[in-house]
Amino acid sequence: MDCEQIHRPERCVGCGAPLHEGHEQRTYTARYELDVVPPGEGMKGFVLHQTKHLHREVRCGCGHWTRAKPGRGPAEAEWTVALTEWHLAGPMLVALICSLALRLRLSRARIQEFLHDWLGLALSVATINQCLHEAGRAVAPVVQDELVQAVREAQLLHADETGWKQWGQPVWLWVMTCATATLFVVGRRTREVVQCILGETFGGWLMSDGYAAYRDYTWRLRCLAHIERKARGLKDSLERQARSFGSQVLTVIEQVMAAVYQARSSPPTMPLRIQQAKSLQALLAACIKHAESGHGKTRQLARELLNDWDTFWVVLDHPELPLTNNEAERALRHWVIARRISQGTRTGQGTRAFANLASIIDTCRKRAVSPWPYLAEVLRHRRKGLPAPSLPAPTP
Ligand SMILES: [Zn+2]
């Protein structure tokens, strides 16, 4: 389906007088836009629209010619991709390409094949790449302002990290996720990344692994499932001391978890700390003993427990807090598969676009809102040089 849209300036830039159709005018430039639009009445599915945009210049009574220019966002040092209505792909088509690349994890070449075979659209891989970078740039202020703020204000935050690749070089993909937001960041230096995201004043509960970068924060939690997995591994070891230490750790973790579940359903008669004091005392002694063990994995587990000793048992005082870091691990899993398919990202801009889009998509999903219309709306605004609309509120 094809149509034409005429753009006229509303006011004279020379004298500020309103302009209307009666004034002398001419088309000074035209551009095509391809977009996915809602189907007409009685129809369902996908409709692809080609719009010819005619940009007029109008002559005011004062003699000045004023142009209705296609929108363009101002230049920003860290982005080479332009944010502009000059681009061929319309906002919903760009959102569709983001969905194919990020949610469906298709490579650029597969997206090209899909658009060609199913929609009869011949877009180059470079254009597809440009769409993804432009969308990533468009949402950047939302990520910087709203998502970082949501994470900093979280009462309970899950953090985790996994390996990522940028142009074949190993870097880290970090995730910070709370009840209403998920933030992804790709970076190198660990401590700085954490401090940069959380700031100096983060005051919520922080569930994380044992990375030293997290130890600056006061209200920390550690994942018990993580230790449980390691203890289970030791229990199956051929080494006698490792086996016995592994089963001791496993027994304590299972007891603690059972006590927490119990306390959640009915208040305990005795505080959990006191209930578990004896077995924790015995485990502490065993950890101290095994911290110098000649068996590598035994020594590592003993030291890991000692390094964060109090943090592991916070749930005994606060049984309402989570026992595991599953929230963060689940948030990373989708992208671990994406990394295996795509070999990561290639450029700094590609990496930032990826992390921004992943953050927006997963936050919308967490809020039970479809990310695609929102993404298209952000592009529509940002291509005109306007601020991005706020993230949709969570669906109750
Ligand atoms: Zn004028």
Give your account of this protein's structure.
- By secondary structure, this protein is of the alpha/beta class.
- Among the domains are: 2-67, no CATH class; 224-317, no CATH class.
- 47% of the residues lie in helices and 17% in strands.
- The protein has 14 helices and 9 strands.
- The protein has helices spanning 91-103, 108-119, 125-138, 140-152, 190-198, 224-235, 240-265, 272-290, 296-307, 309-312, 314-317, 326-342, 348-366, 371-383; strands at 2-7, 25-37, 47-59, 65-67, 156-166, 169-177, 182-187, 205-208, 220-222.
- The strands form 2 sheets. Strands 7-6-5-8-9 form a 5-stranded mixed β-sheet. Strands 1, 2, 3 and 4 form a 4-stranded mixed β-sheet that branches.
- Helix 6 packs antiparallel against helix 7 (240-265).
- The model has no long low-confidence stretch (mean pLDDT 94).
- The site of zinc ion has 7 residues, from loops.
- Zinc ion is lined by residues 12, 14-15, 17, 60, 62, 64.
N-to-C order of helices and strands: EEEEHHHHEEEHEEHHHHHHHHH
Structural class, please?
Answer: alpha/beta
Unreliable segments (pLDDT under 50, ≥5 consecutive)?
A: none
- Number of extended strands: 9
State the shape: elongated
**How much strand content do the residues show?**
15-25%
Give the helix tally.
Answer: 14
Percent of residues in helices comes to 40-55%
Q: Biggest β-sheet, characterized?
A: 5 strands, mixed
- Please tell me how large the radius of gyration is: 28 Å
Strand order of the largest sheet: 7-6-5-8-9
The first-to-last residue Cα distance is 38 Å
Bound ligands, each once: zinc ion
Summarize model confidence as the mean pLDDT: 94
